[in-house]
Amino acid sequence: MFQRQALVIGNDNYRVKPRRTCVNDANDISCALRTIGFISHCATNLESQTMLLRINRFRESIAPNAIVVVYFSGRAVQYNGHTYLMPIDNDWISSENVGQSAYNAEEIIGIMHTKGPRAVILILDCARPYQTLVGETPFFVDREPLGLLQGMAPVQPPPSTIIANSCEAGATFFGLADNYRNSIYTYHLLRYITRPNIDIDTVFRCVALNVEKSTNGRQRPDRYSSVYELLYLVINSYSKNLARSSTMQPDQQLR
């Protein structure tokens, strides 16, 4: 039986422009993954060095042929065509040190693949506006613009990789769920990710459809997949037909 392992990170307490739901999102996702048999490591409000330590420690724990999930809720920036996930000590990060102080999403995927997993699934719950960080930049205070863009750049991952983004590139709207606890994306992800006998691509399609519907099209998640098998996070042989038939379409009524 293959191992299922997850690293879940949520950063709210940014020194400049903190966020609201990321810690809740991370805790809830980690708990949900544990209920379906994942070994889930959850960490919140990480500074730069601690975040690096957590990522490397998790990488060393990955078993061969494991299904690996890496979930990040927080802030991200683009620089030189790469997406960097931001630690909470974001007030001193610049274009000169972003590569050493934040975490390149492609490199995170790459180091996970060095351990020979069956698949790597990266879930990024971050806003993705294109605009240059000028004036009200959340990462630079009283400094000249340094060429960083808030949000996520296109990622070019290796085979057996899925990347799920909570919104499309260039998006400025980032929805809050009606429960005021979770982002709209994580709220719907929590509703689908533990359902048995649904392949992971279908899970992400259902989540995206519900997010788009519940935000009236203002938030449109996207995804990339180079996983060519039907990959299931949880299987229940007794409810396979019922589960698939009841979850292939977005809900008609959303709470």
From TrEMBL:
Gene Ontology terms, MF aspect: cysteine-type endopeptidase activity
Pfam families xref list: Peptidase_C14
Residue ranges occupied by any Peptidase C14 caspase domain in the UniProt entry: 4-229
GO biological process: proteolysis
Highest taxon of the lineage: Eukaryota
Protein's name according to its UniProt entry: Peptidase C14 caspase domain-containing protein
The species this protein was found in: Adineta steineri
